[in-house]
Amino acid sequence: MTQNLNEKLILTHLKNRNHDVFKMIFNKHYESLVKFACHYLIDVNAAEDATQAVFIYLWEHCDELNIKTSVRSYLYRAVKNRCLNQLRLLNIRDKHELLYLEAVLESDDTEYMQENELLHSIKAAVSELPKKMQMVFMRKYYNQLSIREIGHEMSHSINTVKVHLHKSRYVVRTSFECAT
């Protein structure tokens, strides 16, 4: 009962845009929400961005929100939804990153490396990936399979394939950027 009363009081103060209450909520939940977001998104920066976006939305719309659960439950649900939306957008980004990678590989501007060295560094980065990520990356970019086809072929869910692609692209891109 006391916890229920405290939640109602917190929500009331939040709806009244009490900065101290918002700060208390932020300080209490931010770190654990970022860790939670990291379970969905691989990149810590992306997890922080998703969590911050939820808090920004909370502050900007706190007087309009009708939170029926605890603030904690609301925040976890909001972060989860934000992460899932970002994962859905990865499919769109995949296409742009592939176009970027192809453009770099076809570029005549090779100040730092010759094209063969560039290809070698990409292949070396791919060969360093864990086996499953390597298989997903190769099926996507060498065999030009769709995420759905890769998932079916490897008996993985679409989200698992997306996560493997996201991780593998991050590793390859990072090693590629270090090489240039």
Automatic annotation (TrEMBL):
TM region positions: none
Record key words, sorted: Sigma factor, Transcription, Transcription regulation
Signal peptide (UniProt feature, chain positions): none
Residue intervals of the RNA polymerase sigma-70 region domain: 26-88
Superkingdom classification of source: Bacteria
GO molecular function, one term: sigma factor activity
GO biological process: DNA-templated transcription initiation
Segments forming domain RNA polymerase sigma factor 70 region 4 type: 121-169
Family, as annotated: Belongs to the sigma-70 factor family. ECF subfamily.
Stated name of the protein: RNA polymerase sigma-70 factor
Organism (species): Draconibacterium sediminis
Source organism phylogeny: Bacteria, Pseudomonadati, Bacteroidota, Bacteroidia, Marinilabiliales
